[in-house]
Amino acid sequence: MAHEPASGMGAIPDGDGTTFRVWAPHAEAVAVVGTFNDWSIGADALEAELGGYWAGRVEGARIGEEYKFAIKAGEVLLRMDPYARQVTSSIGNGVIYPRDSDLWLIPDDYRTPPWNEMVIYELHLGTFTDPPGDSPGNFESAIGRLGHLKRLGVNVVELMPPMEFAGERSWGYNPAHPFAIESNYGGPTAFKHFVQAAHEAGIAVFMDVVYNHFGPSDLDLWQFDGWTDNGGGGIYFYNDWRGQTPWGHTRPDYSRPEVRDYLRDNALMWLEEFRIDGLRWDATAHIRNVWGGSDPGANLDDGWSLMRWINDEINARQPWKVSIAEDLLGESAITEPTTDGGAGFDAQWDDRFVHPIRSILTLREDQGRDMTSVARAIDHRYGDDAFRRVVYTESHDEVANGSARLPEEIWPGNASGWHARKRAALGAVLVFTVPGIPMIFQGQELLEDQWFRDDHPIDWERLDTESGVVRMYRDLIGLRRNLGGTSAGLTGQHVRVHHVNQQDKVVGFYRWDQSGPNDDVLVVANFAEHRHEAYVIGVPVEGIWDVVFDGDAPIYHESYEGSGASRVEATAVEVDGMPASVTIGLAPYSAVILSRAI
User: Fold this and answer.
1) What b/e sequence results for 321-358 when a residue is b if at least 16 CB atoms lie within 10 Å of its CB, and e otherwise?
2) Long-range contacts: 364-369, Cβ < 8 Å, 24+?
3) DSSP E strands, 212-319
4) Rounded to an integer, what distance in angstroms lies between the CA atom of residue 144 and that of residue 287?
5) Would you say 479 and 549 are in contact if contact means Cβ atoms under 8 Å apart?
6) Burial level of 111, CB count in 10 A (0-12/13-18/19+)?
7) Among residues 356, 350, 354, 358, which one has the least CA distance to residue 382?
8) DSSP string spanning 435-464?
């Protein structure tokens, strides 16, 4: 070890050698072993540094070599590097991996789309594609489907956690090695290629991170340097009742500076070293509260401050990148700026939308549908920014764990039937027209009817058999992003739910940005099986309005008939508190979207 160790944690290759640094405050001694020294424990001892750190530079330890830390704590413990970017498997060895940008194919000047233009597609790498053989999908096979997402109009993919987990298949919410990319998905270099391919297609990459717990299996962090209290997890974990989570007694100890640094370093690594564009934090309610609820006696103030600190770090370094919380408790403080006492997230998944809308769409009888509940879901927001919420009718949670895809929930055993496809489409219209950031789950645009599990890939043959549904999603996404220049209002902050007809089960709302032609948008949704040939509804101004979307158009399914005229004229007859009104056709379980033309 002739050279001075480099800064940083884990394995930092430099020329013909590598610096190794690890935090093990209770160790008597630490060495690094690997293929470069024939796994000899006595060959390359590390030197103690302040704060319980151990470090040293090993000549001849090069990129691609395998290694572990040998920690003497009475006995010798062989541990995987907590900061390892690459591992051979969840129970294997670390692999020395470069920290620089040499593996990027070309310079990447991609920038995340504006929040008011984002359309998120949530996907699980193992089931998004179905490569030959028995192996799960991976980054290489996923790249082959980016063209479909680009044609669909999606401009953000959100990956369920791709960090190294136990076994070959998993949802990903059991990270064994939080810094390493799952080896079955192709590892870190394949991930970089995926990010670059997505950026070249104009698609941002968000990724789920799991900071509410680790593991709980194949977890070398557990009692990492031999120390434990109360039989708990040791230096990386709470060792008392605060460690308990629904997934095991493995909540990180947010009070320890070294653990806080570990989580901060992880978040920044994905955004900076791997150039992704946003993070979606899993179950933030379990970071700020032991039981994930509102019991003040179980609050974790250190967890709350951790989220604020990391979000401030991201905003200071790359403010255009996005942090999304899955909190699901309806707390506005989650998306309030840290300067106002909030957690500083840019957006949060909105349970005030998904639960009431799914409930209303899945009711068998029309008479039970509550239009006031629909109106509240449309109008809900966190604070003064419409885009602080992510809206959806399907996510990995909604379509698993005893629940099914929305069409199957609507009509079990007949997900492709008329009622199921019509009401599922009605939900999609709301997702893409209400204020917020819209999100769909993989296969939703294919009318996928199988509940999500990590060993069942989506059925890509539906690209042909359900081409009408694919087209409908493409048209809705185009309107949401204003790609045709006729629906700028859907990118705006403003909404007015001005028409709530409980008797006929119709809701109408007006969206606008600056207001004017090609900006003002009217959405009218019929939640009943009854057809209206001449339905009167208020609009903000008289003149010509174009029907830019008809959910009953025959182009979407051969059984559809169309709602009515494609262009209507608003007259100066006050309706719904609006100065003008139009008469439109409204098909069963359908929505029409109108754009002000003149």
Assistant:
1) bbbbbbbbeebebbbbbbeeebbbbbbbbbebbbebbb
2) 366/505, 366/527, 366/528, 366/529, 366/530, 369/505, 369/527, 369/528
3) 278-281
4) 36
5) yes
6) exposed
7) 350
8) SSEEEEETTGGGT--SPP-TT----TTHHH
Token readout for 574 is: 């006050």
Domains and CATH numbers, the chain: 10-95 (2.60.40.10), 119-284+313-322+349-480 (3.20.20.80), 488-596 (2.60.40.1180)
- Reported confidence tier of residue 101, pLDDT bands at 50, 70, 90: low
- The mean per-residue pLDDT over the stretch 191-215 comes to 97
| Buried b / exposed e along 65-101 (16+ C-beta atoms within 10 A) | bbbbbbbbbeeebebbbbbbbbbbbbeebbbbbbeee
- The helix (H) or strand (E) run that includes residue 356 is helix 351-362
| Residue 218, CA distances (Å) to 87, 272, 276 in order | 12, 27, 26
Give the confidence band of 1 by pLDDT, cuts at 50, 70, 90.
very low
In sign, the C-alpha dihedral spanning 317, 320, 326, 328 is positive
| Tokens coding 193 | 């290629």
* Contact assessment for residue 503 and residue 542, using Cβ atoms and an 8 Å cutoff: no
Q: Estimate the crossing angle of helix 418-433 against helix 371-379, to 10 degrees.
A: 30
Q: Which residues have a Cβ under 8 Å from the Cβ of 202 and sit 6 or more positions away? A: 150, 155
CB of 408 within 8 A of CB of 451? yes
Which candidate, 288, 281, 284, places its Cα nearest to that of 304? Answer: 288
Distance from C-alpha of 283 to C-alpha of 287, rounded to nearest angstrom? 7
pLDDT value for 110:
87
* Length of the chain in terms of residues written: 598
Q: Closest Cα to residue 124, out of 178, 86, 165?
A: 165
HSE, side-chain direction, 13 A CA sphere, residue 534: 1
Non-local (6+) Cβ contacts of 561 within 8 A are: 552, 554, 587
- Percentage of residues of the chain with pLDDT beyond 70: 98
What is the β-pairing status of strands 156-159 and 163-165?
unpaired
With 0-12 CB in 10 A as exposed, 13-18 as middle and 19+ as buried, what is 167?
middle
pLDDT band at 53 (very low <50, low <70, confident <90, very high): very high
- The Cα–Cα gap between 145 and 19 comes to 39
Q: What is the pLDDT of residue 105?
A: 58
Query: Quick check: 275 and 320 in contact, CB under 8 A?
Result: no
CA distances from 505 to 112, 358, 362, 539 (A): 39, 16, 14, 19
Cβ-count burial 140-157 (b if 16+ within 10 Å, e if not): ebbbebbeebeebbbbbb
Single-letter code of the amino acid located at 150:
K
Q: For residues 438 and 121, give the distance between their C-alpha atoms in angstroms, rounded to a whole number.
A: 9
Query: What is the C-alpha separation between 447 and 554, in angstroms, rounded?
Result: 17
Residue 395's Cα: distance from chain center in Å?
A: 9
Q: Give the pLDDT confidence score for residue 104 in this predicted structure.
A: 62
Distance (Å, rounded) from C-alpha 489 to C-alpha 598? 15
450: alpha, beta or left? (left if phi > 0; alpha if psi -120 to 50): beta
